[in-house]
Amino acid sequence: MSCSLFEFCRLQEFKTVRDFLFRNEKSEPVEEKSQTEDNELSWDTSDWESAWEGGDNKEEESTSDKKVADDAGGQGEPWLQDCVVSLSPCADLLVVAREQKAAFLSAKWRTDDSGREEMTLGVSWTGTLMLLCIFTSCLNTFFRSSTGRPDWTCVVVGFTSGYVRFYTESGVLLLAQLLHEDPVLRLKCRTYEIPRHPGVTEQHEELSILYPAAMVTIDGFSLFQSLRACRNQVARAAAAGNDVIQPPPLAYKKWGLQEMDTIVDHSSVGIMTLCVFDQMKNASILGGFNASVKGSPPAMSQYVTVGSGPYTGFYYAIEGSSQPLLSHVAMAVASKLTSALFSAASGWLGWNKNKNEEEAPQKQKPKVEPATPLSIRFGLPDSRRHGESICLSPCNTLAGVTDDFGRVTLLDLARGIAIRMWKGYRDAQLGWLQVPEERSERDLSPSASLPRRHALFLIIYAPRRGILEVWAMQQGPRVGAFTVGKHCRLLYAGYRLMGVNSVTSQGWQLHTQQVCLLDPITGALRTVNIPFHLALSDKKSERAKDMHLVKKLTTLLRSRDTELDILESEARSILLDIKHPAVKKQALESLLSNKNTPVSCLVNITRALDDTLKRQEPEEVDAGLLQLCSSQLKLLQLYTDIQQLHSATDVEESDSLEGIEEELSRVAPTLQRYAQFTPRPSVSFAQDSPDSPLPAQAFLSQLECTEDEEVKVIRRSETEWNQLGNFLFWSCLCGKSPLHKVCYTLQQAGISPQQLLSLLLSVWLHREKEVLQKPEENVRNLHRLLVALSNMKGAVEESWDPQSISPWWQQVRTTCVQSHNAAAALLAALVTHRAAKASITSRADSKFQSEWEAVSLELEQWVVCVRQLEDVLVLQTLLLVPPPPGATGGATVQCSIKTLLEGGTGGIADSVSKWVFRQDISPERLKEILQKRGNKEADDNVEQRDEEERHEKEKSQEDTDRTAELLLALCQRFPHSLSPDFLFAHCCWEYVVQWNKDPEVCKYTSTHNVLSKISTSPEVSITFIVKRFSAATFLMEKVGKAPKDRLCRRDVGMGDKAMTSFLGCCVQLLNILMEADSAVEEVSAPELSIEEAWSGAEGPASIAELALEQKGVHYPLVQHHCLLASLLHAAMTFSVKVKPFSLFDSKGKNAFFRDLTTIQLMPSGDMDPGLVSVRQEFLLRVLTGWVQAIDDPSSSTPLPSSGPRAEWWPSLCLELGSLLQVNPDILRRHLVCELYSQGLDLRAEEVGNFFLVYSSFHGLRFLVDHENLLKLTLGTKTTWLGVDPHELRCPLIPLPQTSRLVGRLIEILPENHAQYSLALHLLEAVEVLTTED
């Protein structure tokens, strides 16, 4: 066993993090909003506005380099090198930051394709921590826990302003403090470690912050208590909705590091005590010959810095030489804070001040305490060398230092010297790994009570060469090297959980990753696994020799050119030469898992090892190794026996199935249709084929031997389970193997009948296509296998009472109920039903010996199960009908008895409604199909047609008729669950759900409205529509006209054309609601029931049930909303400028978008004349727009039923006028005026006989063309026309139409009318002009 890289986590959304960190943020202009209108409206719009509002706009300082942004464009480019990356010790929070932006990735668990759970890191928070500061190159995360388990994670951030801020894992600021007025260079944390040896100084927790010329240390215990109190305060403030109280400052020590030119990194080694000799040596060097020496050496805190002048510096601070600093608080409270202090002294510490009282001191610049000077004790001078980083070992005795010369130097911190140096590691990244010795190797030794040994390894990542190396300490060799890429990041925390002491650490289990390697290209997080024995330098170590033999065996197994005889002999020799039992077990497992080794070699090698172990003394043999050899040898023998039986030529004769032939013939047509629609994969691989042989290695991995010498099947993934069942039983099902011998062999091996039955049913259901090719033969073989398994010992209990449920047959029934392969499940149920009936009959005959037929609860359960499976088969056949080309709706739904029962009473109708949507069946066609259920008149009419006409339509109608036939057959099997009302309700709901996913497809909404007319649940659909309806209303109110496509997509989620159609559909739906409310007393509610076989359905209530439980709508309120929808639809259709709410008074505005079942205060009485005038002007402009839309007088084609040219717009305007208290005569006059002005005389005459006023328009048209003649005829009386000729849109009208119009005018006017003589003169003038033409 050697070093290895193990991937334990994978980052999700890593590209999203990169795009967020390197995105050029630009401030977007904020759209102007009408404040007067917003203040006027009083309804709550937060629920619908939040769905379409964008994020906040944030400005970013222009400090990023353009080249860095360009480098972020490629996935494989070193964009991560320009970011600050930090990983928590438990590897469940990763922070990636650049400049002001940061992204937090939290741990998540998911299940992969093989069913295993794996950990991933997904983005949990992104944002800008502070806008006025820029991230420095240090960022640390750590856990704090009081029980040994991680409670939560804190992120510590240092800024160039000198501030240090503490955040939660969700980006909430806990604490911020200005400790020094220089940029923060590094953040280092030291946590509690359990001393492994007596006499070792116990190190306390500490957070150290490095500045260019100073260093601040914060005691870990007080920091832990402060942060915990701050977190609790933030949680309470968030729950109560109050402001977060400013917490008290931290207690810290500040050292001014002197006598060193430049400092770029540091390490806080901890408290140390010199021995007596070192104390005397230092005293004599510093004080001379007459120096005095204290009796006890003082305790000192050691700090090591790297930089230049000198290259490495050693500082020692004697404990007690500097008091902790606590700004704004008396020195009396400078001791370590506890949770009791925060709870008892929260008042006088200033935690309960009002916000106004805090604003003044917060604006003042915080007081910065001066640093205590600390001189350098000694260093490693090297004028040309500049240190770059230092990495402290877990044992605090060694440190690795990198420099600008590409060297890595190993320092002995106790002696202050360099003991080793590596070259050729430019820009190296360092980490440490401490590996404990395996516990099992020392448990039986006399020195088992001694502490466990630990091996220390230095991890060096060289990005220039893309290599990761592992070196044994202190003078050990390189024990591992990996090629990992040139853009990775080595993440080494150097600390563990905070908030732990000698008491709380007892009995805890640390699950931390010491060193992790992050690959930005794949997003993989990998850790280094190093065995302890690699640190052993003894060349005669048996374990090291055994590991060498394991490597040799691995190389031999990987070689494909080796002959089988040589492979077997060398592998046997290597395996027998290994001494250590654990290593020998590992080698045997590696051999058995190798896919290239033949079964014969595995058997011979395993037998040789087993014989060798048996010849040894029992005391010298490892029991686990011997058990492994015997169990694997037994499984290999079983694998060989099964293979030989499958290749045997003596096949047993199959028996006949007299009782099941009728059942097969009855379901044969349905099985054939089901087989036609079963999808077939277009591409398959040889290794994935079910006919491919099962390797012995896969067979061994799925079986294990128990202590009772029985074989237990291990169920892993569904694919492996099916492969094992296919290997055991498929040849028997095809009739190619002696099934009784196979069952006997499996029984002798000790496999339980229940597991064999599960494997048999699994392969039967999995290979449904092959089963349906020869159903009779396969069913016959399945029956024989079921009987053979049932006769095994332990299958059917001897004490089973036929009047109760048998667990054996219940297992088959449960599998069939859960299966999505309806045809195979039905055949298995029919066979099992016959086998169970024969078993119960034989038991009854042996017990009673009578001619009475046995009646059992078990048989009744099978009758119900067969009935349900037949229904599911018909339903699944219908669902497998391929949709028309270009149809939407997703993949085919796979159903089973279990899914239908869990779907509740509406599960069947829900599946059919999804199929109706996918097939794109129109509501009229669906209604026509369902009407054929009770009569055959349509079939009789088809037979009476002419044969030639029927032959022409036969091909085009073949698919449609087949679909209708399947749907009718299904409705006959589900008369209650698929009743018309029930099915229409579910189809209505399905269409509105699909429309909500794609609002641009207006066909969904129109189809939904048609279905709502014939269903019982139009109220349920309002849930999806009201949100977009209100958004469209407020958008038009905001812009004051028909909005453009961009605004519609932004606020409503659809284009302007789709929005127009949507508003028209809203009008239809609200009209349907009013019609339904009007007829609620005349039509009784439908009775909902379910078929007897499906009465056990348990699940959510169906759509129809929910609809019947809905309260009745308030008719005036629905009519009020329908009026609004009609006005919006008209405004969008004809592009009329209007603010919808300006057409209503305050009562009408407040009633909008309320629950339609509530009673609201509606507008009543006479409206304000000014409001009526605004309404009248809007309706007149709508009529004008409609007339302009039908501007073709010569066209004789009828108007369409929808769109701006629809013929119902005038009647709608008149209806709206009556609701809006607008005089309908004014609307009619305006309409006739517009029609005559447009030249649409016939349509004008249809509106009304108001020719006393409107005939003047043709006179004006006549005047335009024949002005001189008309003046001669009429003299000076032409001024009675009163209209500007330029206002007419169509002045050129044929004279016969003008003559006809004047004649009608003379008929209407009385002879004593003032204009009667003028009309006669006008008629004469027209006739003269007509004669001249």
TrEMBL record:
Compositionally biased spans, kind Basic and acidic residues: 26-36, 55-70
Superkingdom, according to UniProt? Answer: Eukaryota
Q: What would be one Pfam family of this protein?
A: RAB3GAP2_C
Q: Which InterPro entries match?
A: Rab3GAP2, RAB3GAP2_C, RAB3GAP_N
Q: Which GO terms describe its molecular function?
A: GTPase activator activity
Tell me where the signal peptide lies: none
Keywords of this entry: Cytoplasm, GTPase activation
The entry's localization annotation reads: Cytoplasm
Residues covered by the Rab3-GAP regulatory subunit N-terminal domain:
79-491
Q: Name one GO cellular component term.
A: cytoplasm
Q: Where is this region: Disordered?
A: 26-74, 929-960
Q: Where is the Rab3GAP regulatory subunit C-terminal domain?
A: 755-1247
Please state which protein family the record places this protein in.
Answer: Belongs to the Rab3-GAP regulatory subunit family.
What protein am I looking at? RAB3 GTPase activating protein subunit 2 (non-catalytic)
Its source organism is Oreochromis niloticus
Protein encoded by which gene:
RAB3GAP2
